[in-house]
């Protein structure tokens, strides 16, 4: 390989189509579709030329992606390092890159691994630009939108999304950067996103509309808008978002030198877009022989929002039935969804996944609210920056171990989907023992933490600067039981 490989934009182009998961209709990507006009089912994107990629050997692909990690081109630095596997219909000028992707995988310290009883690592997707994995999907959706605007010469595009917080933060960020014809509107359930998540779209200049209800209510309104008005929907119903989020799987595989044997990937499930994307990504690598073994996938849901868990809890596939649930308050608020839009995609991909890898490759586990918040606190006490959904993954790993689903030699890769700071209010409620009763969380002393006041403010006023330093120094030494030097 010469360095032309990583400093030149790939020449390969595919042919992409939407495929309906209901009636198998194929639709042209030159139109904005979110659901099938014939049967209303959700869509996935497919590259009909995908098999051409087999002309390149698995070794060549691995080497190519490894070399491309050193690129100087901003259009190949993020999720489009894996351009040929992602959206090989975009041109370099379409690609938006705000630093998304390439997030680190941090192995747990031996103390945490010892406590859990299993090797584990967190992939910190909170280190994306708007501090969640949603940026991966937005980078792809906005790049495609730019291509459409370029081809059609549109002068105004209104992007809309409903959000449990992070989708709107990401959508508003990318819209603010692209600017021009694009204007961003976000619909949030009033009082159901954290102050940090509300601040993000406001700061990016989006129109923020609050509606009473929960996420599922907002989602219905956005679907109504997308059906009846000319707007671009940016929820994960938009299949371009799924494509961009596949990069998570590609990066995990690359991190482990393309060896996925004895790996179990844990993903929180909300609207189920991310777990869909991750399975789809690993399947693509597997089809091309870039990975020889698929990792096992564990979806995790809170008992307060668990329709996907309930579906798979029936072990006989013939008897499974999907029912939306009414959600209850959850600290994994970004996953607090009772009727996940991508459920049909999960069913479709989980089937393919088990066909390719065998039974037991896909599981969904259910965890309690107490375990979720304590998963986050435990992770972060060991040097991680997990959000509550990252904590949900750790709770899911502990649950999988209880159920005897983990093997001793396996490494669990946990998706820390957002930065801990976005969900810090839940930590505060735990530390202050102020959870409303519907969460069902009782803090444990050993996991609580609070600032300790050392001196009263009047001391500062009364003393000179020098006296104050001495007084405060002695007070701190006393609290810490420090031994004086001899
Ligand atoms: C969106 C989101 C989820 C849920 O992902 P889905 O794709 O909706 O299943 C989990 N964690 C965080 C932090 C999120 O923003
Ligand atoms: Zn259809």
Count of β-strands: 13
Shape, per Cα inertia axes? globular
Q: How many angstroms does the end-to-end distance come to?
A: 65 Å
Question: What is the helix tally?
Answer: 18
- Low-confidence segments, given as residue ranges, are none
Please give the radius of gyration in angstroms.
24 Å
Fold and architecture overview:
The protein is α/β, with parallel strands linked by helices. Among the domains are: 105-129 and 242-446, Rossmann fold, CATH 3.40.50.1100; 452-486, no CATH class. 39% of the residues lie in helices and 14% in strands. It is built from 18 helices and 13 strands. The strands form three sheets. Strands 4-5-13-10-11-12 form a six-stranded mixed sheet, with helices on both faces. Strands 8-7-6-9 form a four-stranded parallel sheet. Helix 6 links the parallel strand 6 and strand 7 (182-189). Helix 5 runs parallel beside helix 6 (166-178) and helix 9 crosses helix 11 (273-287). The longest helix is centred in the first third of the chain and has 19 residues, at 134-152. The radius of gyration is 24 Å and the shape is globular. The structure holds pyridoxal-5'-phosphate and zinc ion (ZN). Zinc ion binds at residues 20, 22-23, 25, 36, 38-39, 41.
Present the secondary structure layout.
Blueprint: H1 4-7, E1 16-20, E2 26-28, E3 43-47, H2 58-68, H3 83-86, E4 105-107, H4 110-116, E5 119-124, H5 134-152, E6 157-162, H6 166-178, E7 182-189, H7 195-203, E8 207-211, H8 215-228, E9 232-233, H9 239-245, H10 247-255, E10 263-268, H11 273-287, E11 296-302, H12 307-313, H13 343-357, E12 362-367, H14 369-380, H15 388-402, E13 411-416, H16 424-431, H17 457-462, H18 465-479
Parallel strand pairs: 5-13, 6-7, 6-9, 7-8, 10-11, 10-13, 11-12
Antiparallel strand pairs: 1-2, 1-3, 4-5
Helix pairs in contact: 5-6, 5-9, 6-7, 9-11, 10-11, 11-13, 14-15
The structure holds pyridoxal-5'-phosphate (PLP) and zinc ion.
Keywords: Amino-acid biosynthesis, Pyridoxal phosphate, Threonine biosynthesis
EC number: 4.2.3.1
Organism: Desulfonatronum thiosulfatophilum
């Amino acid at each position: 390989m010469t360095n032309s490989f990583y400093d030149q934009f790939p020449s390969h182009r595919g042919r992409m189509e939407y495929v309906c998961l209901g009636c198998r209709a194929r639709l042209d990507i030159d139109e904005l579709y979110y659901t099938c006009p014939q049967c209303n089912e959700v869509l996935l994107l497919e590259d009909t030329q995908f098999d051409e990629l087999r002309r390149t050997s698995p070794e060549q692909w691995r080497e190519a992606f490894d070399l491309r990690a050193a690129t100087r081109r901003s259009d190949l630095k993020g999720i489009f390092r894996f351009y040929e596997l992602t959206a090989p219909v975009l041109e370099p000028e379409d690609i938006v890159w705000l630093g998304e992707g390439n997030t680190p995988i941090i192995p747990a310290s031996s103390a945490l691994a010892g406590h859990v009883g299993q090797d584990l690592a967190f992939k910190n997707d909170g280190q994306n630009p708007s501090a969640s994995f949603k940026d991966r999907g937005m980078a792809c959706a906005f790049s495609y939108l730019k291509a459409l605007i370029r081809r059609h010469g549109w002068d105004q595009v209104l992007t809309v999304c409903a959000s449990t917080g992070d989708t709107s933060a990401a959508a508003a960020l990318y819209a603010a950067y692209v600017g021009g014809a694009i204007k961003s509107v976000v619909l949030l359930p009033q009082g159901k996103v954290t102050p940090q998540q509300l601040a993000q779209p406001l700061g990016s200049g989006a129109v923020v509309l609050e509606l009473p209800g929960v996420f599922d209510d907002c989602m219905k309104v956005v679907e109504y808008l997308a059906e009846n008005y000319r707007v671009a929907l940016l929820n994960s119903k938009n299949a371009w978002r799924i494509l961009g989020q596949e990069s998570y799987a590609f990066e995990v595989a690359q991190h482990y030198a393309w060896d996925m044997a004895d790996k179990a990937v844990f993903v929180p499930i909300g609207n189920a877009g991310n777990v869909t994307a991750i399975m789809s990504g690993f399947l693509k690598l597997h089809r091309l022989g870039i990975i020889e073994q698929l990792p096992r996938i564990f979806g995790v849901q809170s008992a307060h929002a668990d329709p996907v868990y309930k579906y798979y809890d029936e072990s006989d596939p013939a008897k499974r039935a999907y029912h939306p649930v009414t959600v209850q308050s959850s600290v994994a608020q970004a996953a607090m969804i009772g009727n996940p839009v991508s459920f049909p995609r999960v069913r479709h991909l989980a089937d393919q996944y088990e066909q390719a890898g065998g039974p037991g490759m896909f599981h969904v586990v259910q965890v309690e609210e107490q375990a979720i918040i304590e998963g986050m606190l435990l992770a972060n006490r060991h040097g991680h920056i997990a959000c509550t959904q990252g904590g949900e993954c750790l709770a899911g790993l502990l649950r999988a171990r209880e159920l005897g689903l983990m093997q001793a030699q396996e490494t669990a890769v946990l998706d820390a989907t957002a930065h801990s700071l976005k969900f810090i209010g839940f930590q505060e409620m735990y530390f202050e023992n102020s959870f409303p009763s519907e969460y069902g969380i009782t803090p444990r002393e050993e996991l609580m933490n609070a600032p300790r006041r050392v001196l009263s403010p009047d001391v500062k006023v009364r003393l000179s600067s020098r006296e104050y330093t001495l007084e405060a120094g002695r007070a701190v030494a006393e609290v810490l039981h420090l031994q004086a030097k001899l």
